[in-house]
Amino acid sequence: MLELRHVFCGYDAEDVIRDVSFSVAEGEVLCLLGPNGCGKTTLLKTIAGLIPYQGSIQWLGQEVRSLKRGQLAAGVALMSQISETYFEYSVYDTVMLGRYLHGKKGLLPSRTHEDEVKVKQALEEVELWPQRDQPITQLSGGQLQRVFLARTFVQEPKLILLDEPTNHLDLKYQLELMERLASWSKLPGRCVMGVFHDLNLAMQFAERVVILDQGKVAIQGPTGRVLQDSMIAKVFDVDVLNYMQSSLKKWLPPTEGNERR
Amino acid sequence: MKNNSKLGLMVGFSLLCFLIAACVGSVTIPVQEALRVLANKLFSIPLPSSVEALTQTIVWDLRLARASLSFLVGAALAVSGSVMQSVLRKPLASSYTLGVSSGASLGAAIIIITGWTIPLIGRFTLPLAGLATGLLTVYLAVAVASRVDKGFSGNTIVLTGMVFTLFVNAVLTLVAYFFPNRTRHILLWQMGSFALKDWSYVSVLFPIVVVGLFVLFRYTRELDMLTFGEEQAAVMGVETHKVKWILMSVAAALTGSAVSFAGVIGFIDLISPHVVRRWCGAAHKWVLPMSALFGGSFMVLADVVARTAISPTELPVGAITALLGGPFFLYVYFQKRRRA
């Protein structure tokens, strides 16, 4: 569904992403990993049409740069990291903004009954329907994250791009979100691509992983194979697998073959 | 209370302000007589013989014409303030930040000094020159901002606007310095006043304000999205660059028209959106109409105070809006905060 070929992009004539190529197939959850500053967020924004690029990014066979904002937003949604907001929108109104492309057009555009049904459904799913009239300025970071998730879902895209969506969420909501994204991605004509810091979540839910290092693809492929690749220790400068195994060993009761040294 | 009811209440309050403006002044007119004059003028209901011709002139030709102009100016300023604050994501932004008032003052100063009059439009030469130079300043500021910063960010626009404002103010100071005998006249224009304004001014400003407000109401959802940042608006499908240009142009044109008819009147554009947001939330489908009604009503009341406080001398209405608006704003803002 999404195909990147030899993509270069960045800010102020300096390329942050250099010669990146990979694709995302229908029904897939793809996880983008890499150390801080390797260009993960820049790449997500470029796919969402926010940053000019060289090379080719094709969404459903069409070049992203040739699409109008509305055309791209009808298929691709980006949930970026939470930004501070001064204006006191209610939870309900904030989620309703996601229906921008679906609302009734005309001289004075308005919301439809369908918009209201979808927003209610999305708020119930993120367990914020009782707080619908509360100003978003009074919410906790985790609640705000769930509001923006609900807004992303009511946009009804085909590809959801997520920039560290589990930040601010406690473990329960992290798992629920990932399960929801995984099952959503299996609907016809859908896929998910996200930047995650938590390797456990990536292992559990992503079918494929792309690891970036200094703006280039260092490793890519099925999750199991990538996480066992010897390159991963070099990219993160940490022996990732050994670290994950040893943190489990440290706290689990010793069993046969898993004894504390 | 639901926002629909609050809007209805605000409409009622606005009508009450018009009634106060019609009745209060150097000659007090009884409410019943003022209502009869209104009914006669609006619905051609015959006037009883007890209502004198002078009363009709005072209520209709002097006070209501002036109140209508104040209302239009206040509404235009308040709505354009709301739009600027949301588009630039700066709670302290307004069209003034972009140089409308400085530009308009310079244009007006040139007309005052030279005494030029365009034959076809006569006394409207002064407001027209103010409007033209006010808008020119804003467009130059925005055009420069969009060239130096391809992203067209709020910070660049505000900074460029401030540079243009300072530059135009410096030119204005020089003009005043070289023509000291006109300084008082220029200063009075800058202070703002609705004195001696009749229905002809209303008939020119009315269509401008109505069209401007209609265009802005058309973009309430885009305004909502822009308050979350340009990137978020763009990924939800808003053509941010184009929409920002339209919104800022219309907001600047509204402020420019208001300033050119009444002189520089500050504060209303800053406080109205904040007061209204405290009362009915941040969604622009409520903020814009409520700002228009609040700003308009506030200006009508400020003008009543300006012409009656030390009658027969008139105070500059710009000073009254700040004197009344400041404490009122603090009260509304901090009372709600304490409760929260």
Describe this structure in words.
The complex is a heterodimer of chains A (261) and B (340). With 261 residues, chain A is of the alpha/beta class. Chain A has helices at 40-47, 69-73, 91-96, 113-125, 141-154, 171-185, 199-205, 223-227, 231-236, 240-251, and strands at 2-11, 14-24, 29-33, 53-59, 62-63, 76-79, 159-163, 191-195, 208-213, 216-222. In chain A, a hairpin with a 2-residue loop joins strand 4 (53-59) and strand 5. The mean pLDDT of chain A is 84. Chain B has a single domain (3-339), classed as ABC transporter involved in vitamin B12 uptake, BtuC, CATH 1.10.3470. Chain B has helices at residues 3-23, 31-43, 53-88, 100-114, 125-148, 154-178, 183-191, 199-218, 220-226, 230-235, 240-262, 268-280, 284-308, 317-339. In chain B, helix 2 crosses helix 3. The radius of gyration of chain B is 21 Å and the shape is globular. Chain B is mostly helical. Chain B is built from 14 helices and no strands.
